[in-house]
Amino acid sequence: MAKSKVLVVGGTGYIGRRLVGASLDQGHPTYVLQRPEIGLDIEKLQMLLCFKRRGAQLVEASFSDLRSLVDAVRLVDVVICAMSGTHVRSHNILMQLKLVEAIKEAGNVKRFLPSEFGMDPARMGHAIEPGRVTFDQKMEVRKAIQEAKIPFTYISANCFAGYFVGNLSQMSSLTPPKDTVYLYGDGNVKAVFLDEDDIATYAIKTIDDPRTLNKTVYLRPPENILSQRQLVEMWEKLSGKTLEKRSISAEDFLAPMKGLDYAQQEGVGHFYHIMYEGCLTNFEIGEDAEEASQLYPEVQYTRMNEYLKIFA
Ligand code: NDP
Ligand code: GO6
Questions:
Q1: Which of 2, 5, 295, 312 could disulfide-link 76, Cβ–Cβ 3.0 to 4.6 Å?
Q2: Could you tell me which residue ranges the NmrA-like domain spans (predicted)?
Q3: CATH classification of the domain holding 252
């Protein structure tokens, strides 16, 4: 079977650039949306040119011009969107409704992966404000996709290692703490951590797979289901140093909320659901969904003790 043609929207973003790389690596004719709005952003332009050198085709289109989106979408079989989803990195997830409209009008797209790549928004109906906004919006996008009968796959990627592992899940840094690590409660709640390149590899694997049609695919590789304490232990082994551990109760963690800026409030809410509530692991993957490491056992996913070595 010929490899499907893929359009990545948001291709210069944090996860988007890896999706472009994985699509090229897996041999898909790869198209990347080039927005005129990037203007003089030389970093974005250089990244796009780099994709082009690696064999991608750049497609000019703007979210303020539906026609241009329809034309872009007509070039391909699969559309993957990686638009930003939280205030930490700007907030444009609802812009996807335009893309959904374009895909509906074009009528040729065999699979759409909207910008998800995190917690399953369908399981976050109880999430606290303002962190819930991104989940509500992702659900709004899902509704539009399903109403338009667009074939989809939702990737629930759990925790990006860059935000949750290098820092041992401390919110104030992206690198390991030197002396003291703050534990969420007893530190024993299980979360799921993934190297961002593995997220992209798995996501691209799903696009031509009939088993993932109109399904949620959870990325839950068994060796990466870990508690914060287990992450800390891995780091202590690698660094040869024992960290002082201080436990924070859920109450104390949530108490300073009101004084924080919007982006930090969002982060606190997300960390709360993951690290105290265990929202990534407190359910079984049902018959109506799939798990990526079971579908693609050939993928040698990065273990978190390997991931952490770069910080030692
Ligand atoms: P980024 O903040 O890196 O942004 C991605 C892209 O969004 C940008 O590169 C840009 O595309 C596009 N974009 C931004 N503003 C606009 C706009 N006004 N109009 C059109 N496009 C715009 O996104 P992330 O990679 O951080 O997030 C992608 C997804 O991953 C989100 O759904 C987010 O919730 C999720 N996520 C999950 C995490 C986890 O731990 N599981 C962590 C972080 C994010 P262009 O390339 O065209 O400039
Ligand atoms: C990651 C972050 C890290 C916030 C998800 C504040 C959506 C998801 C696991 O954008 O708010 O320090 O699922 O101080 O579905 C941000 C968000 C993480 C990054 C969470 C996310 C995870 C978004 C911080 C911080 C490291």
A1: 5
A2: 3-308
A3: 3.90.25.10
